Amino acid sequence: MGSHAGPTSALFLLCCMGTWLSSHLSPIPPLQPSEVQKIIVELQSLSKQLLDDYVKKEKGVPTSQSYTLPCLTPDPQPPNNINSSAIQAHFKTIRQLADDNSVINEIIEQLDKLEAQDAPATNVSVPTDTLERKRFILTTLQQFSECMNLVLKSLNYGTQ
Ligand SMILES: *[C@@H]1O[C@H](CO)[C@@H](O)[C@H](O)[C@H]1NC(C)=O
Ligand SMILES: *[C@@H]1O[C@H](CO)[C@@H](O)[C@H](O)[C@H]1NC(C)=O
């Protein structure tokens, strides 16, 4: 060890341990409101894109009253007011049924960032009938899009 190595490594440790600790000790740091806002804006735009694409692809498929996407929770605080585990479960199910998964994967990725720890897994049952399945997907996509509009609106009111 040279005479300069000591102080240099100590400085290195000081500078970099902090960063290392903050990135490793809290694997899920609480999201800042600005981060939540960014994720919601992203999700809202993705949900609209996905819905528009699906409507174009499956022309004339009607929505159905039989399906409900659990969107919001009683918690008034974003991101806790979004039932992201239920939405996540729906999109993981729809991903298995869809031909093009790129947008769905992006949505799941964004939802991952919102997901509370240890959220219980929910099962989503999918209709076996082909047309009914399309109605299920369309209805879910539409409700998700409306859900994101609602959340975004509530966020915007909150920041005014
Ligand atoms: C989220 O949705 C799931 C599935 O419907 C439901 O069981 C759960 O109670 C909801 N969570 C909250 C906090 O509302
Ligand atoms: C989901 O469904 C599978 C297969 O039907 C079942 O084994 C599992 O226990 C269910 N999980 C929940 C959380 O209901």
TrEMBL record:
InterPro entries: IL-31. Residues 1-22 form the signal peptide. Keywords: Signal. The keyword Transmembrane does not apply. Pfam families: IL31 (PF15209). The keyword Signal applies. PANTHER family: INTERLEUKIN-31. This is Interleukin-31. The lineage of its organism: Eukaryota, Metazoa, Chordata, Craniata, Vertebrata. The gene is IL31.
